[in-house]
């Protein structure tokens, strides 16, 4: 049974221990991450990044907090597609337990992103809001951590002040924005600050929080959350991406989430399944038409197949560039570590030489001096190699940045030209650019860049 005030990390740990005791997992450990740990910034990097996180979670519980963010943006959708694809592969199937944690409506919205996602996460564990009595008990614990006591009024549940406080708390916890333990901790900080301010002139007196203090703080929190609930919710990233291109077809605004309870959707896939068809895995900063696999009327099979081959080749090139940059960065880190190790060794040899000189051991002193000189030479070589690797990495990053700027400039120019009225994204192909629908082509010369 989960104890009062159990946090999300404790939940993940207990689930890991449960599956470990059942023999499903090889370890009781858990790995916590967020959507940003799965989603990359550039085309072609999200898939490998998601797989890397899954590899780290092998034999463990992989706890993805605030999973609703995987609904936001084309790159996040690629992470969802990668999860759906990977969780049925022998490398991961039955070897990792994945938990998608978030508010109920957010999780339901996420499961609609890919038809196969809900089948990969058949188990649902809802966590209802804490009871008012549990909230008060947690508040007491949080205040005691700050050496603050609660007043005697908390022991009189029939008093009018206590009843008013509990009524305010009940109304507050019924709001969609209520955060359970998180809000109780916020409340405890507010009450602690007020108690310290009230006792500023007499710090020798014990700090006490009364029922009336708590009721007023809860009432203030209630008014604040009601005011926030009347405002607009956060704008999803996919809406922001689509608004950047006026040529895109109109997209309905996402309804702001109204969470009532926290839900963890758990993947416990243990048998092989035939993965459903996955949407186009070539995400871009500016999404293609609603159906990226739908060609324009009249486009020949030859042109369409060439276009798809070009898109795949461009994606593979970008992925290879990203992997090369990552490898160079790793080489720089390795060379820096080697250089530091050489420096530490030189320091040790200097200390040993000083000790040998103090004891007047000439033979030892000469040996330490010789080794010290060897390490100094190795350090210089490591420093030179590190500087060369850093310069190569800098040039590669500059070239990568230049290419991306050229790509963005070309995309802007192509949109301004208005050649493709449907607003498809453009892809490099055969000495020019062709829209994703296949029917429009602009040569490099016509583009004028």
Notes on the protein architecture:
The chain has 449 residues and is α/β, with parallel strands linked by helices. It has three domains: 128 residues, Rossmann fold, CATH 3.40.50.300; 99 residues, no CATH class; 147 residues, no CATH class. Helix content is 54%, strand content 10%. It contains 13 helices and ten strands. A five-stranded mixed β-sheet has the order 1-2-3-7-4, sandwiched between helices. Strands 8-9-10 form a three-stranded antiparallel β-sheet. The chain has a two-stranded parallel sheet with strand order 5-6. Strand 1, helix 2 and strand 2 form a beta-alpha-beta unit. Helix 2 packs across helix 3, helix 6 crosses helix 8 and helix 7 runs parallel beside helix 9. The chain starts with 7 loop residues before the first helix and ends with a helix. The N terminus is likely disordered.
Task: Please sum up the structure shown.
It is built from 13 helices and 10 strands.
Quick tags:
about 450 residues; Rossmann fold; 3 domains; extended; disordered N terminus
Distance between the termini: 66 Å
Q: Which structural class should the secondary elements be placed in? A: alpha/beta
Tell me, rounded to a whole number, the average pLDDT: 76
Gyration radius, rounded: 30 Å
Strand content: 5-15%
Unreliable segments (pLDDT under 50, ≥5 consecutive)? Answer: 1-6, 232-262, 269-293
Strand sequence of the main sheet, in spatial order? 1-2-3-7-4
Order of helices and strands: HEHEHEHHEHEHHEHHEHHEEEH
Largest sheet: 5 strands, mixed
Number of distinct helices: 13
Tertiary shape: extended
Bin the helical content. Answer: 40-55%
Tally of DSSP β-strands: 10
Work out the count of structural domains: 3
């Amino acid at each position: 049974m989960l104890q009062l005030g159990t946090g999300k990390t404790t939940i993940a740990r207990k689930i890991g221990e449960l599956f470990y005791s059942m023999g499903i997992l090889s370890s009781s450990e858990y790995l916590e991450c967020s959507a940003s740990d799965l989603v990359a910034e550039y085309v072609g990097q999200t898939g490998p990044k998601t797989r890397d996180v899954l590899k780290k979670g092998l034999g463990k519980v992989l706890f993805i907090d605030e999973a609703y963010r995987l609904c936001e943006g084309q790159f996040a959708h690629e992470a969802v597609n990668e999860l759906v694809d990977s969780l049925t592969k022998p490398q991961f199937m039955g070897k990792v337990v994945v938990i998608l944690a978030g508010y109920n409506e957010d999780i339901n919205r996420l499961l609609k992103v890919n038809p196969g996602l809900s089948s990969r996460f058949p188990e649902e564990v809802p966590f209802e809001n804490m009871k008012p009595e549990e909230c008060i008990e947690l508040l007491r614990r949080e205040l005691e951590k700050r050496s603050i006591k609660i007043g005697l009024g908390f022991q009189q549940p029939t008093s009018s002040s206590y009843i008013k406080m509990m009524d305010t708390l009940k109304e507050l916890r019924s709001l969609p924005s209520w955060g359970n333990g998180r809000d109780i901790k916020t409340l405890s900080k507010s009450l602690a600050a007020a108690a310290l301010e009230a006792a500023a002139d007499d710090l020798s007196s014990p700090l006490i929080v009364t029922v009336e203090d708590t009721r007023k703080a809860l009432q203030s929190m209630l008014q604040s959350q009601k005011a926030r609930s009347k405002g607009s919710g956060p704008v999803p990233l996919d809406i922001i991406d689509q608004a950047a291109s006026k040529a895109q077809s109109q997209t309905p605004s996402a309804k702001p989430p109204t969470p009532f309870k926290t839900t963890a959707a758990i993947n416990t896939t243990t048998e092989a399944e035939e993965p459903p068809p996955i949407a186009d895995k070539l995400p871009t900063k500016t999404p293609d038409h609603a159906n990226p696999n739908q060609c324009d009327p009249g486009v020949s099979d030859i042109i369409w197949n060439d276009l798809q081959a070009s898109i795949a080749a461009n994606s593979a090139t970008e992925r290879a560039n990203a992997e090369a940059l990552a490898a160079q960065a790793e080489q720089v880190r390795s060379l820096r570590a080697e250089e530091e190790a050489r420096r530490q060794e030189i320091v040790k040899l200097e200390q040993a030489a000083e000790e040998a000189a103090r004891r007047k051991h000439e033979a030892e002193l000469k040996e330490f001096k010789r080794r010290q000189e060897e390490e100094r030479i190795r350090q210089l070589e490591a420093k030179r190699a590190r500087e060369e690797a850093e310069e190569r990495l800098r040039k590669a990053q500059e070239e990568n940045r230049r290419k991306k700027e050229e790509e963005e400039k070309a995309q802007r120019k192509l949109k301004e030209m208005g050649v493709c009225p449907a607003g498809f994204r453009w892809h490099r192909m055969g000495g020019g650019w062709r829209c994703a629908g296949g029917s429009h082509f602009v040569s490099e010369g016509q583009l004028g860049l």
